[in-house]
Amino acid sequence: MPKLEISKVHDAYAKGGECPLCTLVDAAERWYLESCLGGRAMASETRVLTNEKGFCPEHTQRLYRGHNPLGLAVMTHTHLQHQAPALRKALAGARNPGRRKAGLTALADRIRMLRDRCQVCDMLAADLERWTFTIVYLWKHDPEFPPRLGASRGFCLDHLRAVTLAAGNMLGSADLERFLADVIPLAEKSLERLEAEVLDFTQLFQHTEPGQGTEEQRTALSRALQVLAGRLMRKE
Ligand SMILES: [Zn+2]
Ligand SMILES: [Zn+2]
Question: Distance between CA 165 and CA 151 in Å, rounded?
């Protein structure tokens, strides 16, 4: 187990909040987006990935809001160049009367693939797999980790899915049962707590100026949405 991954996981637990995996993914995502627009925009291995995969709508939007229109334009130009032949073929195929149904399906598939494939999402998915593995590994091998997990708020729903699937693959049935006994009650507690906190949040608007209340009260909505959506909520 690489030390770097372990220390990143410990740092995310030290930060607290609803889900350490959301904290890790958020930091990695911002790093990837920044580096796509920075030095990596022109690096040849990044260009190859961008040509092949491009970016999903969410990451396209975030790159567009970034600070490097020239870098993004260069990447977009080569991406269009790279994708054009297959796209032209699919467009022409859709007009072939002999194979209309197959042609339309192939065009729809090609367009969907072009829209949804994303080098940032792929890198984050690989990271998430490593971090969920690390969490289950630490739970099994580091006696200091289970208390740390037990003192946390558990995971957002999507990362609960990821971490329980990883545990299902990695642990024998006795260990898995103990792991689930540690993790599932945290999710049950979080759901109950967040339901009450979001109700309190709505009361803030009825009795005082919006923005008043404690930090915990003011962040209740964003934390509840994080647990439902599987990502830290940001205004920008
Ligand atoms: Zn999460
Ligand atoms: Zn993406």
Answer: 22
